[in-house]
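Question:
When you can, review this sequence-structure pair and walk me through the tokens.
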Amino acid sequence: MKRIPLEYAILGVAVVATIAVTTSAQAQATPATAAEKVKRGEYLVSTSACHDCHTPWKMGPKGPEPDMTRALSGHPEGVVMPAPPKLEGLWTGAMSATMTAWTGPWGVSFTANLTPDPETGLGKWTQRNFIETIRTGRHMGRGREVLPPMPIAVYRNFTDADLEAIFSYLQTLPAIRNRVPEPLPPAASVAVR
């Protein structure tokens, strides 16, 4: 039987140890399971004020509260808004009683339907569209600007993993068919839909 030189034996042990460490690091860096990702997304949506604007509010026994039967479905298509109030002095914005229509120097913005409805929500969006929207501040990453009150400057700080988790969670919601109006520019905001 031929003996292996000591240097080769040490090199072999080092290679095996390197492979073990690399495999362990890769396992730790592996993305979360789908269920863990959805759970993380639910947590982020619940703690990042998404329901404050994207879920229509209603009057409850203790005052205004989110209408969770329409969770994250955006501005209700059946709600026709009157002309926005005239903003004067230090007033730079106002919102509707549903918390889904906002007016200011930018015109009137309506919060989007974040449910996976294929016609009126995020159903046809890809994870990439969603991430690009947050990163660029433009609809689907290349369209019109995302308007106030959406805190794009803050949400850009989410990691890609966070945004993937949020998108994964939103895709698990019940799809709610609700066509949200397009934003109105300042000149057109006197004739609000």
Remarks:
- The chain is about 35% helix and 10% strand.
- The first helix runs from residue 6 to 29.
- The helical segments are 6-29, 34-47, 50-54, 127-136, 152-155, 160-170.
- The mean pLDDT is 87.
